[in-house]
Description:
Chain A is of the alpha/beta class. Chain A has helices spanning 42-50, 71-77, 93-103, 110-119, 135-143, 165-180, 193-198, and strands spanning 4-10, 12-13, 16-17, 22-26, 31-35, 57-62, 65-66, 78-81, 153-157, 184-188, 201-204.
Amino acid sequence: MPIIKATDVSCQRGQFTLFEPVSFTLAEGQSLLISGANGIGKTTLLESIAGLRSIQLGNIEYKSIDLLKSKDQWFDDSFFIGHKTGNKKELNCLENLRSFLQIQGIDVSEKQAEDALDKVGLAGYEYQFAGSLSAGQKKRLALARLTLIKHTVWILDEPFVNLDVAGCDWLLKLLNQHIDNKGILIITAHDNPSIRKKITHELVLEMQR
Amino acid sequence: MKPFLSLVKRDLTLGLRKKSQIYQPLVFQLLVVTMFPLGLGSGAKTLALIAPAVIWILALLASLLTLDQIFKNDYDDGSVESYVLTSYPLSMAVMAKVLAHWLLTGLPLVLFAPVLGVLLHLPSSSYGVLMLSLLIGTPIFSFIGSIGSALTMSLKHGGLLLTVLVMPLLAPVLIFGAGAVVESALGNSASQHLLLLSGMLVLSFTLVPFASAAAIKINLE
Amino acid sequence: MNEFLNMGGYAVYVWSSFGVFFVAMFIDFFGLRSKEKIIKRNIKSMIKRKTNSK
Amino acid sequence: MKKQRTNAIVTLYHKLGSPPSFYRISGYFLKWLLLISIALTCWGLYDGLVLAPADYQQGDSFRIIYVHVPAAWMSMFIYAVMGIAAIIAIIWRMKVAEAVMIASAPIGAWFTFLALVTGSLWGKPMWGTWWEWDARMTSELILLFLYIGIMATYGAFSEDARKAARMAALVAVVGLVNLPIIHFSVKWWSSIHQGTTVSLTGESHITWEMLRPLLYMAFATKFYYGYSMLKRARLYLLETESQKKWAHTVITENK
């Protein structure tokens, strides 16, 4: 039974329609890889699905209700990590992780946050300010949120960017685990053969004629 | 309520770590207020006459220095997205941001006002009204400013646009705020002015969060 | 005629009021025309680009 | 019978709501609006400058009323139209409302500017000063600032006209809510701070001969607004829908 159903969805930048309308359906344990050339609108589409932007063309249904009407339900069940990580450079890793989730209404104890940092390989960086981290470490800090949430739908924009080999392996394992637990994954990624293996659906965006 | 408090707490932590946001407006006020006797002459009578207006205008200008920061940083690092992508209403997040901004920048202005009063020979009887009027008025600055900040957050140089947008809307606040201090300096009751000022605060409290939330949503498109 | 132009001694104020009014309307009117030309020109060139690429 | 009528209204609403038919329908009116406006202006000018008698207190300087008052009326009328269009644009995301909203701003700003300048030119011979901080002039000045803010917001987001228009619409709505507060507070403020009371016309009452040209001019400005606004709105629609077929047909058939 499809949980997410998108029909003829496309996005606009200014007055230009970005890509040919796309349709897809996703059920439990399925995953979608969105690919396409640079500037084709992968991020815009992902942000529209996440609910940051309104869907200008086509429509998306979540559990058979139009996303425009079931926003609260959708926001409670979906989790988005975009290009901008949302980390504050004046806060340390622990504070960043906890405050980000608490603002979204997810309670995280200090112990849980420390464990999460351990898992993403940021053990020993608990009290380091996010501003002093490397790009890859900042990404890990953002991805650490995934180990603390219970949302069924993960929407990730280029999660592998800036990660080293070990980081990629860890993330891959986490994503596989999520899919095995009947989670849903929507992701954009530049050619990454190992993610392709697990992906059930792929969407290649094409230029609007 | 918990997300609201977490957001206020996080912003206060941020503000107290950066500090410049807190003391720079005060330094600015002090610098400008020094220019008045230099330009006008140090006559106590002249200064006392313009003191209420000058202090209020300085409060307005000093808040303008920090208003764009209400949402600008959050937009740049992506935190704004996390306020939108929850089932908690965005207007609550706006309210939290405004409260934190006021505590960090508005409250210091209220507490600093007597210093300016002394420098401008404000009659001693009107200090109470001065602080009370600013206590009611500066939150309105933060509220109205949040609309301007939400509208300009994605712009690189939105400061001037924010000023153009916010200043006309704050004219009534200035009229009644400075008016209250003038009345008390003349020995009259300022209660009417303060009441109207409070009315405006209640109005912005009820309406502005929705306007700012709408601005954020349009701006993210 | 002279009397009419003199406007009872208020010529400067009356004629400059009417002058500024109509100058403003003319600027609006002709500014709008040139804007129309530019927009239509741009769309025309876009149509050309599209037909060429087909 | 009744049902049919509501259906007609509904279809009209839908037709005006769709950019191509709005473009087509407004096209019929444009020429007539401009012609009527020019005719009324000529008529009004002749009537106001030649036929109307001079005011017995203000002499011929009162003739400034024929540009000042219409401009002042339009400055408020246009804000009202713009504010309503802005509300529709934000709530129902109607493209035509966006177009009407953003098309109104520059014309409103022009009329506000003109009301201020002609008021100043009238004030000098009457009050002996170019500028008086009285309630009406101060509110008018703040109104000009609001118009400027709306236009500046639209200009700041020029890379995406629709987003820019919706942002500007939000500013317009916020301004609309604030206008009564600004108006009331300024009025109240000037009643306290006014040292010398300014009375403009004293007891001189306006006769029909004097009023008639004013009405001509008031309608002339309304019709010109109709023309300029529709034309701007059409251009906005053409620009934001320049990818669509109808826009291409319009251009190639040069309508």
